[in-house]
Amino acid sequence: xxxxMKFGTKAVHAGVEPDPSTGAIMTPIYQTSxxxxxxxxxxxxxxxxxxQNPTRTQLQNSLAALENGTHGLVFGSGLAAIDAVLKLxxxxxxxxxxxxxYGGTYRIFTTIFAKFGIKFTFIxxxxxxxxxxxxxxxxxxxxLETPTNPMMRVADIKAIAKIAKKHQVLFAVDNTxxxxxxxxxxxxxxxxVMHSATxxxxxxxxxxxxxxxxxxxxxxxxxxxxxxxxxxxxxPFDCFLVLRxxxxxxxxxxxHCINGMAVAKYLTNHPKVGKVHxxxxxxxxxxxxxxxxxxxxxxxxxxxxxNDDLQAALDVLAKVKIFALAESLGGVESxxxxxxxxxxxxxxxxxxxxxxLSDSLIRLSVGVEDSEDIIRDLEQAxxx
Length: 384
Ligand SMILES: *Cc1c(COP(=O)(O)O)cnc(C)c1O
Known about the structure:
The chain has two domains: 7-246, Aspartate Aminotransferase, domain 2; 249-382, Aspartate Aminotransferase, domain 1, CATH 3.90.1150. Helices cover 36% and strands 15% of the residues. The chain has helices at residues 7-13, 54-66, 78-86, 103-113, 129-132, 157-166, 179-182, 217-230, 236-246, 249-268, 287-293, 310-319, 349-354, 371-382; strands spanning 71-75, 94-98, 119-123, 139-145, 170-174, 192-196, 210-214, 273-277, 300-305, 324-325, 335-337, 362-365. Helix 2 (54-66) packs parallel to helix 9, helix 3 crosses helix 4 and helix 12 packs across helix 14 (371-382). It is globular and about 75 Å long. The protein starts with 6 loop residues before the first helix and ends with a helix. The model has no long low-confidence stretch (mean pLDDT 95). It binds pyridoxal-5'-phosphate.
């Protein structure tokens, strides 16, 4: 394969070789737990399937290529991938994290790792310089989501990477919302990219998986040791599904972006809608940064109602027909959710309100259906 491929070509080809034993163009599902050795210690690079599996290897290589990294690692879920990053730390270490973040990430930080003596500080990261005043000699990791879930806030990856580098702190970016099609944090100076592959990478709402990509050999070795020692691996069938999903990532993302923008613009002009959160809108407070570090703006949109009425929001959720009421995001079908009672219920109300996550906030994962149908569905759900 040529070195400099464009994204769509990489999505179809990168990291994936025809199966060496048969020539199968699609990576087979190597449903095996172990591999026969020719003699003691004489094997083909595969010993035991927690440590290595060929289906997993190809997926990991594909992800590394898409994120312009050198090493990919996949896990049993996005949270298992986050768990692996946190296990790089030691008791007494400190983490600075965005305060607007996936509910499950907040939960693993505050209920699992806080117990093991890791300290977390949650701050807004739109102003990158504000981060510096929270860095202490014990700070070992900066954790960023951009765009964030569900407020669609955007932070300047390059500016934060500079601060992280200056203080020799690891910098991890949860790139789930943007996907490598829209944004490549490693190119902007991040040390670790994390994905919930459950979402856009898989893209068909049929598997749960997490991924990490890095471009530093030492860091990759440490993370591999954690993957192998903690054992939160993913099975080969799920790897096959995500490999298949990735082949159309660029095509799906193009449509998600078109539809996301159409929905955001429609909602902006709706008399019942309060604030629309979408980084592609010119009045988004960080639109200038989004434009710089993202190639387009994706399919996630959130909005509140002008009267901020909880019941009115729940009525919209009950009335939609094309949108399915469900947690998760990033699949081909449009989903609708209510963060305050669903994905973000594990974040205390005071914390939610601090970041503007009001009771009427509705989150849309805009799918790849025809945008006219999607908008018509919202129109009837918002009507009296
Ligand atoms: C879903 C999600 C996660 C967690 O991933 P799982 O695969 O559900 O464990 C983390 N971050 C973001 C932004 C997510 O949307």
